[in-house]
Structures are given as structure tokens and as C-alpha cells.
């Protein structure tokens, strides 16, 4: 936080607001752009992005917190940029996620700097930066803020910063996970530094490959051949190939599956996602490389040249689904692994829900659902686990950890899209996630929602049912349903106004805008935000939970819980659910919802 505070200080130096006229004219002759910007306390910044994604949202929110004016445009055609830049005449154009070529008349305008936020170390160039970094197993990677130029990623450098590429659990080291965590965090810091440099009159340095400190190179775009897996290789090498392409565009592979006639045949090509190394007894199962050895909760276990790995999702015809929804395989269903594992360890098999207990009686409940989407069956399994935790008298505090990258994003729109009856599946799914929320607020344990990653829609609302809700600093929340043409449920009409008041609740729902965790804490949506990294956040949450588990506090919390369990209170809460579901039943019949869902799933 001290680093962030210092950034805020440097972004608004008071002395720059009072430059004497004689000095001002001298500065204008030397550098009109930096002088013009020096005289401003805040910048008008234009965002050009393919999509207003998690990085773009985080960066816009961070800059708005520092009093800059941000206008975001999702770009479909390069020509749009020329008109938008001419009409807006911003102080700065920032491209946090843009793969389209910037027109020369935009990047060559000397009056308006145009920056690319590139997810690579200094000297790295190309469209597959993170992919190659993971493929090469780089120990360190980075983000560079570059002046846009005629050659891709070859412009002058305004700022560059690095980060370690290390994870305690290698299964989490995917392209998308690195992007939403380390890359996003570093991109924000690099952009803030670049703006500081701009406002202080510094100039960018040219890219110099003769400098021995410049390690990056120009790399080609990854091809389909680069992403096609070879099951003859060891499982850890195949897993790396899948992770470097996850979640876009996905690795490419086919499977050896037993058909209805009993014969083994190769399937057609799929895009592969959600690789998890099998480190338990199942890795010793025999079979030929590429053979489907078993299935569990939508994932399939694949034999490799050495060992085996799980694949959780497949994509075909632009639709990404749990693997077994695409593969109608006759492979045996593998028994569930034990849901509870030792504290501080990770599952050694494909396991999207697990718990771990500390000696102090703190139970951490992890639900690592792909992209944070919670299907009907996943919600039902989570309810079963929460009920078992509730029955454990040793447990005093239950901490809902969600996933590393995403706490939760609510109902599973892809599974609903693929259902034979999307209306019926929507209804089942919303009721199933409501049952999860009910387990949380009716628990006799002290409950804590720990948002390590972003959360949206019903996933953001679900967190409010806990006694306490904390998020990692920098987490982006989208606490609304409007873009999916839904009224929403998850008991939000009860818990959201209780936390932020009716006026702010209505504002959050109607504006459909993202908010940073720090702002969410200020308005009461959260009880606090701590930790720059997931690891730091986990440590702080453990400390908080252990404090709440102290015997001296149990009597107080027991009284609070008894008040919340008052029949009249529970009746009021259930009436909120009924009211929400009445709206949702109508929404699920509305063509607007189905069109919005289809657009979300296929784009």
C-alpha cells in the first residue's frame, strides 16, 4: 500500500499547478506535450480495447481513483480509432488490451501520446508473449508500456516492470491466471509509473537490442501446430502445453475413446482446457497414450507417455463445456477423492471442491470452478460439503475461499446454453446457487467470504451472505445482473441493502459498472481489502480467521448467530428469495435473456 500511496503523491505534484508564465513559455519551446500536461492536475485518457476485460476494468478504476477522466471504447475496426481520437482530443490514448493495428494518424500525432500496454519484458514483441513465456518456463516475465509505432511493440519504452513466474501449485499457472493476477498487477504499476514519467517531463527511451539487459526478442505468433498436444510426452509437458493456451485459444488434441461397438477410436480435434496433473494412485492406471482412463465431475483422465492428467473442459463449435458434455465416453466414473486435505497442501488429483482445517478450528472451503461459473451439479456438491462442515463441531470459523482467479461469477451460462431446455436448466441453476447462499447465512459457524479473485453477478452477491467479507486489494467486482437481462437472485434484495443501503444498492444494480475492492470496502459492500498478491491475502485471511476462532469470542458470536436465526428474520430472508425468483421466472422466458446469454457464451 505504501507503494500505491507514493504513486498517488507523484501523480499530482502541487508545484506543477503554479508554473510562472516566463518558465511556462520556456518549457513549451522545449517540450510542448509534457508542459501542457504538467499544467493539468488530471488527464483525459482514452482507452482503446478489443474488450473491456479484467485488466482494462482494473486499470480504468485505478486511474479514476487518482482523479483522471477515463473514457473506454471497445474497438471493432481500426478506422474507429481515428475518428474517436480526433473527436475526443484526449491528453493520452491508452491501449491495455488491443490486438488491432493502430492507424498511423493516431500513433504519429505528436500532441497525443498513444501507449500500448504489452504483457512482456523489455524487448519482447509479438501477439503470443505470455504463451511463449509459459512454454519456455521463464522464471521471470514482465509488462512494458510502449509508445505505439509502425512496427508492432517496437516503440519507445515509457516503463517496464517484471514479476516472478512461480506458483506453489503448478496446476494454477495458466495463461489466463497469470494475466488476471501477476500481469494485471504489474501492468497497473507500470502504467502509473509511465504517467508519472510523462507528467514530470521525462521522455521514453528507445528499444535497444544491443543493451545486454534487454532479454526480450521478437517472437512469431503461436500456430495451431505449436498448440497441438502429443500424448506420447510425459504428463507434465502436455499439461504445460495446455496451460499456456488456457483460456484462449486452447490447446488442440484428440482422444482415444471406446465407442458403443466396444472398439477404440480417435475422436475429432477439440480445444483443451483445465489441465490438472494426476499425482495420486490413478496415475498408475494402464492404457495407451491419449486413452481416456476415467471421468469425474465433468473432467476426463488421459493417459500420457509417462503419467496421466485431467482435462476439465473442451471447446467445439465455439462452445466451451465440461469435457464429458462433449465426450459421450464410456470410461468408468472414478471415485471422488476425499474432500478434506491437510492445511497448506493442494489436491493431488482433479478436485474442484476441497476443505482444509487448521488446529485452531478454522475450515477453509475452496471451490475452484473454471472461470468462476457454478453449474447446478457443482452447487449441489458444494452444498453437500458445506453441510458436512456444519456438522463438524471442531470447526469454529468457515472461510469461503472460492477460486484463485475468480471467487465466483454465478450461474453457469455455458452449461445452460448447451442444455436441452435452457429455461428449465436456468431455473434449476438459480435455485441451486440460492441453496448455497442459504447454507452460508444459516450456518452456526462464523462465516467469512475471502475474495482472492474477481467476482461478478450472483458470485459477488453470494459473498454478502457471510458474517464477514474481505477481498484482495485490486480485485474487481461486478455486482449486477443487468447486462444479462436478469433481475438476479442469491438473496441480494436482502443482503445488499443491509450492507450498503437501499440507495447505493439500486445504484450498483442499475449502473452495471465494475468497482474496485477498495471502493467496495468504503461503501460497506466489503469489510476490508488486504494484500497485493494472492499469497499475501491468504496469509492475512488466515490471521483474521484464527483471531475470530479464539475461545474468548465464541460466546459473543454465538449470541449474534442466535439473533440471525430468529424465525422472523429467516422468514423475511426467504420472502426475498421468493420475490427474486418470481422476477427470474419471467426473465428466463424472455428472449432478451436468451440473446444476451448466447452473445456472452459465443463471444
Question: What's a concise summary of this model?
Answer:
It is built from 22 helices and 24 strands.
Explain this structure to me?
The chain is built from 22 helices and 24 strands. The strands form five sheets. Strands 2-1-3-4-5-6 form a six-stranded mixed β-sheet, with helices on both faces. Strands 7, 10, 11, 12, 13 and 14 form a six-stranded antiparallel β-sheet that branches. It has a six-stranded mixed β-sheet with strand order 15-16-17-19-21-24, with helices on both faces. The radius of gyration is 25 Å and the shape is globular. The model is unreliable at 1-30 (pLDDT under 50).
Give me the secondary-structure topology:
Blueprint: H1 2-11, H2 21-30, H3 32-38, E1 44-49, H4 54-65, E2 69-74, H5 78-88, E3 92-97, H6 104-107, E4 114-118, H7 129-135, E5 140-147, E6 157-164, H8 175-199, H9 224-227, H10 235-243, E7 251-253, E8 256-258, E9 264-266, E10 270-277, E11 292-296, E12 299-303, E13 308-316, E14 319-322, H11 323-326, E15 353-357, E16 362-367, H12 376-391, E17 397-402, E18 406-408, H13 413-418, H14 422-441, E19 446-451, E20 454-456, H15 457-462, E21 468-472, E22 476-478, H16 492-500, H17 502-511, E23 515-516, H18 517-522, E24 528-530, H19 534-548, H20 551-564, H21 567-589, H22 591-602
Parallel strand pairs: 1-2, 1-3, 3-4, 16-17, 17-19, 18-20, 19-21, 20-22, 21-24
Antiparallel strand pairs: 4-5, 5-6, 7-10, 8-9, 10-13, 11-12, 12-13, 13-14, 15-16, 22-23
State which percent range the strand residues make up: 15-25%
Strand order of the largest sheet: 2-1-3-4-5-6
Largest sheet geometry: 6 strands, mixed
Subunit organisation of the chains: single chain
Catalogue the unreliable spans: 1-30
Q: Give the total of beta strands.
A: 24
Shape: globular
What structural class results from the helix and strand content? alpha/beta
Total helices: the number is 22
How far is the first residue's CA from the last residue's CA? 36 Å
State the share of residues found in helices, binned by percent: 25-40%
Q: What Rg do the Cα atoms give?
A: 25 Å
Amino acid at each position: 500500500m505504501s507503494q500505491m500511496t507514493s504513486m498517488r503523491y507523484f501523480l499530482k505534484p502541487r508545484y506543477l499547478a503554479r508554473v510562472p508564465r516566463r518558465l511556462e513559455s520556456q518549457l513549451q519551446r522545449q517540450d510542448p506535450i509534457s508542459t501542457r500536461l504538467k499544467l493539468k492536475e488530471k488527464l483525459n485518457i482514452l482507452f482503446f480495447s478489443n474488450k473491456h476485460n479484467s485488466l482494462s476494468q482494473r486499470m480504468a478504476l485505478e486511474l479514476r481513483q487518482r482523479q483522471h477522466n477515463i473514457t473506454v471504447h471497445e474497438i471493432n475496426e481500426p478506422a474507429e480509432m481515428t475518428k474517436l481520437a480526433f473527436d475526443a482530443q484526449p491528453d493520452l490514448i491508452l491501449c491495455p488490451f488491443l490486438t488491432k493495428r493502430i492507424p498511423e494518424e493516431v500513433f504519429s500525432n505528436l500532441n497525443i501520446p498513444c501507449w500500448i500496454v504489452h504483457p512482456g519484458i523489455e524487448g519482447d514483441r509479438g501477439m503470443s508473449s505470455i504463451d511463449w513465456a509459459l512454454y519456455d518456463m521463464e522464471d521471470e516475465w514482465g509488462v512494458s508500456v510502449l509508445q505505439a509505432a509502425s512496427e508492432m511493440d517496437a516503440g519507445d519504452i515509457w516503463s517496464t516492470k517484471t514479476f516472478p513466474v512461480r506458483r506453489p501449485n503448478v496446476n494454477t499457472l495458466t495463461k489466463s491466471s497469470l494475466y488476471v493476477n501477476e500481469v494485471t498487477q504489474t501492468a497497473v504499476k507500470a502504467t502509473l509509473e509511465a504517467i508519472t514519467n510523462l507528467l514530470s517531463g521525462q521522455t521514453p527511451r528507445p528499444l535497444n537490442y544491443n543493451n545486454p539487459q534487454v532479454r526480450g526478442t521478437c517472437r512469431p505468433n503461436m500456430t495451431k501446430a505449436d498448440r497441438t498436444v502429443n500424448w506420447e510426452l510425459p504428463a507434465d509437458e502436455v499439461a504445460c502445453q495446455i496451460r499456456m493456451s488456457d483460456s484462449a485459444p486452447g490447446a488442440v488434441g484428440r482422444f482415444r475413446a471406446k465407442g458403443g461397438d466396444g472398439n477404440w477410436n480417435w475422436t475429432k480435434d477439440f480445444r483443451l482446457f483445465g489441465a490438472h496433473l494426476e499425482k495420486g494412485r490413478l496415475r498408475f492406471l494402464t492404457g495407451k497414450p491419449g486413452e481416456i482412463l476415467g471421468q469425474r465431475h465433468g473432467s476426463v483422465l488421459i493417459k500420457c507417455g509417462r503419467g496421466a492428467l485431467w482435462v476439465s473442459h473442451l471447446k467445439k463449435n465455439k462452445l466451451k463445456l465440461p469435457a464429458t458434455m462433449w465426450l459421450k465416453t464410456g470410461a468408468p466414473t472414478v471415485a471422488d477423492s476425499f474432500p478434506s486435505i491437510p492445511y497448506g497442501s493442494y489436491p493431488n488429483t482433479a478436485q474442484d471442491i476441497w476443505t482444509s482445517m487448521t488446529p485452531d478450528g478454522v475450515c477453509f472451503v475452496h471451490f475452484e470452478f473454471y472461470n468462476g461459473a457454478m453449474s447446478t451439479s457443482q452447487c449441489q456438491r458444494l452444498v453437500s460439503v458445506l453441510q458436512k462442515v456444519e456438522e463438524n463441531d471442531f470447526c469454529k470459523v468457515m472461510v469461503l475461499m472460492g477460486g484463485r482467479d475468480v471467487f465466483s461469477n454465478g450461474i453457469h451460462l455455458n452449461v445452460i446454453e448447451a442444455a436441452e431446455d435452457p429455461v428449465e436448466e436456468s431455473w434449476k441453476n438459480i435455485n441451486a446457487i440460492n441453496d448455497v447462499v442459504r447454507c452460508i447465512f444459516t450456518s452456526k459457524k462464523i462465516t467469512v467470504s475471502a475474495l482472492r479473485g474477481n467476482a461478478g453477478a450472483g458470485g459477488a452477491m453470494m459473498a454478502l451472505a457471510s458474517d464477514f467479507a474481505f477481498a484482495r486489494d485490486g480485485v474487481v467486482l461486478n455486482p449486477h445482473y443487468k447486462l444479462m437481462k436478469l433481475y438476479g437472485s442469491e438473496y441480494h434484495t436482502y443482503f445488499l441493502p443491509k450492507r450498503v443501503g437501499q440507495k447505493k444498492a439500486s445504484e450498483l444494480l442499475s449502473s452495471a459498472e465494475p468497482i474496485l475492492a477498495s471502493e467496495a470496502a468504503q461503501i460497506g459492500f466489503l469489510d476490508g481489502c488486504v494484500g497485493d498478491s494472492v499469497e499475501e491475502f491468504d496469509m492475512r485471511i488466515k490471521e483474521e480467521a484464527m483471531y475470530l476462532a479464539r475461545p474468548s469470542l465464541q460466546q459473543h458470536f454465538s449470541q449474534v448467530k442466535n439473533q440471525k436465526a430468529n424465525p422472523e428474520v429467516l422468514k423475511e430472508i426467504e420472502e426475498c428469495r421468493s420475490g427474486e425468483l418470481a422476477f427470474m421466472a419471467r426473465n428466463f422466458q424472455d428472449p432478451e435473456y436468451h440473446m444476451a446469454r448466447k452473445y456472452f457464451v459465443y463471444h
